[in-house]
Write a structure and sequence with these properties.
mainly alpha; Glycosyltransferase; three-stranded antiparallel sheet; two-stranded antiparallel sheet; 15 helices; 15 strands; 9% strand
């Protein structure tokens, strides 16, 4: 996942040769051309198919799960080509379901591959049921994300589990092989000890636990950021649940995370951690909502989660329109700030958590594309612009992870699972609500939401 230390933590820095970049530009300018008369539906199909390739054609070959990163230039400075990321793999499960539902891939082939993935996850290292952030795709052993981050990662586990539950729901009434797959998913879900991560019963969940370092990472999950789904799943667990008090005391900080602040005339509703002026990176409006449907969703403190997310997106959009730093290219067709690869000052490639207060002239395509449910017109304007007018920004698995018109149409020919993995699912939720329906109709989720005093008229949750 994207760990945000708001002085801006750089996960890794590496340099791309200009020659490789120019060759890729020439190749993709030919491969990625889209005619201007393409319909919106055709273009949505195209970008969903492209994003699916990350998890279908470029998956880690042994586990078949989504690898942390895929680099077209085949340069992996940390020799981590075989490393899978649990959260991104969860988004990949949702992406594959979209592929099956739309007929992009064969259902039978998907069942075979998904079964292999569940078998791999069952044998992988687990920590009170939770998986680590990174896993060696060849062995199933933990790859430390940091020195002390070498155990369970509850947030990454939540993103993965959201995908696992949707797979379970999709195939539970199918043929013999599909029902067996659904049962494997159910067993993985029920094995996660969510309540262990309250650190001896404290009324808050903790991000990490390691047998070696115990609770030394000491990162309580407090809102508001991308972690809401962790509390929803923990409350919904039929085996190791948390109570409602943990949600309201922990996640909402006893209700003190509310705000009456507005930006561009739009209410923000909650205090975004370390980003109270404009809101945080846009993935905060996406990761928890691959399955959790925010439409008219409320709890004791938030009247409508859809409005919370929509305003977050539109504030980011309006900021890019205003463009106070005067970056070339920013505008109604080219917007969206979120965490991704980035361009360092010396032109090399690094990683950054882009948001209005940390704006470096880099636009990350997943930011706008994964916002379709909240900003359909603005997102479609971006989609048409990048595919039709900026084909050099399109690679083998769709739009590249990071781009900048300002810096002479700079881009990096690389992808990250956590960015590419939200595109097809959130577009599908905009088009049909497919994944939202799967997740929200899971019996345990309905009970868990009711326990936390959530209401959703759409799904009969009162």
């Amino acid at each position: 996942m994207k760990r945000i230390i708001w002085s801006v933590a750089v996960a890794s820095v590496f340099t791309i040769s200009c020659k490789n970049n120019e060759l890729k530009k020439a190749e993709n300018a030919q491969q990625g051309v889209v005619k201007s008369n393409i319909t919106d539906d055709e273009l949505l199909d195209r970008v969903q198919k492209d994003a699916l390739k990350y998890f279908w054609e470029y998956a880690e070959p042994h586990s078949m799960l989504g690898r942390e990163r895929y680099h077209e230039d085949d340069i992996y400075p940390d020799n981590d080509k075989h490393v899978i990321t649990t959260g991104g793999a969860g988004f990949g499960l949702a992406t594959i379901l979209v592929g099956v539902e739309r007929g992009f891939i064969l259902r039978k082939e998907a069942v075979k591959r998904l079964t292999h993935m569940m078998d791999f996850l069952e044998k992988s290292d687990r920590y009170k049921g939770a998986w680590s952030h990174w896993i060696n795709g060849e062995t199933g052993k933990t790859v430390p994300f940091g020195k002390k981050d070498n155990g369970g990662d509850l947030v990454e586990t939540a993103f993965l589990t959201s995908g696992i539950l949707m797979v379970r729901e999709y195939f539970k009434n199918g043929n013999t092989e599909e029902k067996a797959l659904s049962q494997k998913c159910d067993q993985l879900w029920k094995g996660i000890q969510w309540n262990w991560y309250t650190k001896d019963g404290q009324k808050v969940l903790y991000w990490h636990w390691s047998p070696e370092y115990q609770w030394e990472m000491n990162f309580p999950l407090e809102g508001y950021n991308e972690c809401l789904i962790t509390y929803i799943l923990a409350a919904s667990s039929p085996t190791y649940p948390i109570d409602a008090e943990t949600y309201y005391k922990g996640w909402t900080r006893n209700g003190t995370y509310l705000t009456d602040k507005k930006q561009y005339g739009l209410p923000m509703y909650v205090k975004h951690n370390y980003a109270e002026e404009y809101g945080g990176p846009l993935f905060w409006a996406q990761y928890s909502y691959i399955g959790l449907d925010p439409t008219n969703l409320s709890d004791k403190l938030i009247e409508n989660y859809f409005n919370l997310n929509k305003n977050h997106i539109l504030i980011d959009y309006q900021y890019c329109i205003e463009n106070p730093k005067q970056w070339k290219g920013y505008g109604p067709n080219y917007w969206g700030l979120t965490a991704s690869y980035s361009r360092n000052k010396d032109g090399s490639v690094g990683y950054n958590a882009h948001f209005p207060q940390n704006d470096h002239g880099v636009i990350t395509p997943t930011a706008a594309l994964s916002s379709f449910p909240y900003s359909p017109k603005e997102s479609m304007d971006f989609l048409r612009f990048i595919y039709i007018q900026k084909p050099e920004f399109i690679g083998s698995a769709g739009p590249y992870d990071a781009t900048s018109i300002h810096y002479n149409n700079w881009y990096t020919p690389r992808y990250l699972a956590i960015d590419q993995g939200t595109i097809a699912p959130m577009i599908e939720n905009y088009r049909t609500g497919f994944l939202w329906k799967l997740f929200m109709n899971a019996p345990e989720i309905k009970k868990g939401l009711e326990k936390l005093s959530f209401q959703s008229p759409k799904y009969g949750i009162k």
